[in-house]
Design brief:
The chain folds into two domains: 79 residues, Phosphorylase Kinase, domain 1 (2-Layer Sandwich), CATH 3.30.200; 237 residues, Aminoglycoside 3'-phosphotransferase, Chain: A, domain 2, CATH 3.90.1200.10. It contains eleven helices and eleven strands. The strands form three sheets. Strands 1, 2, 3, 4, 5 and 6 form a six-stranded antiparallel beta sheet that branches. The protein has a three-stranded antiparallel beta sheet with strand order 7-9-10, with helices on one face. A two-stranded antiparallel ribbon has the order 8-11. A hairpin with a 7-residue loop joins strand 1 and strand 2. Helix 4 packs parallel to helix 9 and helix 6 crosses helix 9. The longest helix has 20 residues. The termini are far apart.
Length: 365
Amino acid sequence: MKDLSTEEILELASHFSLEGGGVSAEPFGNGNVNDTFLLVTDCGHRYTLQRINHDVFKDPVSLMDNFARVTQHLAQKYAEGQTTLQTLVLVPALDGSSYLIGEHGNYWRVTEYVPGGLSLEVPESREHAYEAGRAFGDFQYQLCDLPGNPLIETIPDFHNTESRYHAFLRAVDADPCQRASEAADLISFAKENEHLATLIRYADFPTRTVHNDTKLNNVLLHETTGTGLCVVDLDTVMPGCVLHDFGDLVRTAACSSEEDEPDISKIHFLPDRFSALVEGYLCGVQDLLDPVEVEHLAEAPQVITYELALRFLTDFLLGDTYFKVKRPGHNFERARAQFQLLRSMQEYAPQMKSTVSSCLTAGPA
C-alpha cells in the first residue's frame, strides 16, 4: 500500500462514528502485517485506525465478523464480572458497519484506544511474565463458551507446522532470489530439526477458540500495576490448539531479546520467566485443559519457535513477500534469531518439563 498523507488518513477516519473530528494521525505500533495509526480528535479522544492487510487475510468481511463476535462476547464477560480483562471495542462506520472499504479495496476499522496499557517486546520482570500468561489463559477460558457457529479460519493452516516445513523445502528448491547459499547453515539446522514439524499436530488435540498470535506485545499490561489489562491484535482469533498460543507466548516472553536481534550472543531462553508464564497461564486457563494438552505444554515453545523460524526463512528465500522488513536481510536475521532461541530451549528441555510438573503439583497461584 502506498503511504497515505495525514489528510488522507483523517478523511478515512471521518467516515467512522468518532467523538469529535480527527486532528492528528500517527503510525502506531510495530506490527508485521497491518498498518496501524493512532488517531486523536479535537475532543481529546484517542482511537486506533487499522488497515486490514487483505493480501494476508483473504476474507476481511468474515474476519470482521469474527472480530465483532469475539469482542462482544468478551465485553459481556467483563460487564458481568467474570473476567478482569478489558476487550477491544469496535467503533462503527457511519453506515453502522464494523468496517469501511476505502480506495483500492482496502478494509479499515477503528477501535477505541485502551488507556494505561504497557506493550512490551521483551519481559521486564517475572511478574509481567506471570500476568501475560494469566491474561492469555483467561482469554482462552472466556471464549470456551462462545455461542454460535465456529469462527472462520482467517488464515487456513496458520499453525500447521508440517505444512510450513514443506513450504520451506519448496522455497529452498526454487531459490528464486538466489539466497539459499547465504542461508545454508540455517537451512541445514531446519532440516536437522524436522521432527518438530510433526510433534504437535492440530488434529491430535481438542479444537478451541484461540488467539493464534500470542506475542508478548499482544497483551497490554497496566502501566502502573503491571496486571493484565487487555488482549489485542485479534485478527487471527479462530479455531485452533491452545498449545500454539502457549508456545508463542513463551517464545517472546521467556527470551532475553527481541525476535529480530542481530547479535545471537544476546539470545537466551529464560527459565525463570518460563516458570512464571506456566504459573500464570495455568491460573488463567483454570480447568479448561485436557491431559493431552497439559502433557505437551513443555514442548510447545520449541515447536512454535521452529515454525516461526521456518516462516521467516521461507519469506527470506522467496524475496520478503509476507512480513514487513525494515532493512535488507531482516527476515534472515529473524530466522537466525529464532533458531538460536530454539537451540537454547533445547538445552533447557528437561528443566521445562520439570517446571510444568511442579506447577501442576502446586496448583493455582
